[in-house]
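A reminder before we start the practical. When you read a complex entry, don't treat the lines as separate problems. The point of joint prediction is that each chain is placed relative to the others, so the output describes one connected object in space. Small molecules and nucleic acid strands, if listed, are placed in the same frame. In the example below there are three entries. Take a minute to note the order of the lines before looking further.
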Amino acid sequence: MAKPRTPKGRAREVARRLAEVYPDAHCELDHANPYELLVATILSAQSTDANVNKVTPALFARYPAPEDLAHADPAEVEQLVFTTGFYKAKTRSLLGMANRLVEEYGGVVPGPIEDLVSLPGVGRKTANVVRSVALGLPGFAVDTHVQRLTQRLGITTETDPVAIEREVNAMVPPADLGPLGLRLILHGRRVCTARKPKCAECSLEDICPASLLPTRRPKQA
DNA sequence: ATCCCGAGGG
DNA sequence: CCCTCTGGAT
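Here is the predicted structure of the whole assembly.
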C-alpha cells in the first residue's frame, strides 16, 4: 500500500493497521452498565484502570444506582475511592454527577455529548468514553496519548483536543472512532511513548512523519 | 523521578 | 493560559 498523502488517508491507514496489531483492544474499566462506566471513568483520571477496578466493586455494591450515590455520605465515598487519588475532588464529582443524573435525566445516563459534559466531573474525554464503550454511540476520546499520536502521525496539526476530536470525526467512519481511540491509547502506552518512543518496534514507522529512525525520517535537517 | 485514558477553577 | 487536586506502581 502506498503511503497516504492526506491526513484523512493517514487516519484510515493508521486505523487499518492498528486493528491488525490490537484486534481485541477493549476498555479495561470493569462495568456492567453505563452508570458504572461513568463512575469508573471519572475515577480513572490520573489513575490506572487496574487501580480503579480495585475500588469499584465495593462502590457499585454500596451504590448500585445513581439514586443511591446521589444520597451517599461523602465521607464514606471518600474512603471507598481514596486509593485512586484526587479523592476529594472525585467524590464531589461523583455525588454531583449522580444528583444531576437523577434530577435532570431520570437516573438514566444521557447520550448527547452536551448533556454528558454538563454533568459534574465529566469532560469531553469521559463523555466520549461512555458514548463509545457503554452507549454504542460514536465517540472519539482525546486524551494525552491520542493527542500525541495523532499529531506525530500527521493526522492533525491541531493541538486543541476539541479540534482534534472534530477533525478525526470527519475522517473516520463513526463506528470506527471508539476502537481507533482505544488502539491509539494502547499504542501510545506500549510503543509511541511520550519520551523515547520505540520507533524501531512500531508498525506505523514507515508512514510516520515523526519517526526517529534516520533511514526513514523524511525530513532531515 | 515519572507516569497513570482529566476536570475545574482562577 | 496556568494551576491544583492526589495515591499507587515502577
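Discuss with your neighbour: Residues 45-48, 50-51, 82-90 of chain A lie near DNA strand C (CB under 10 Å from a C1'). What might explain this?
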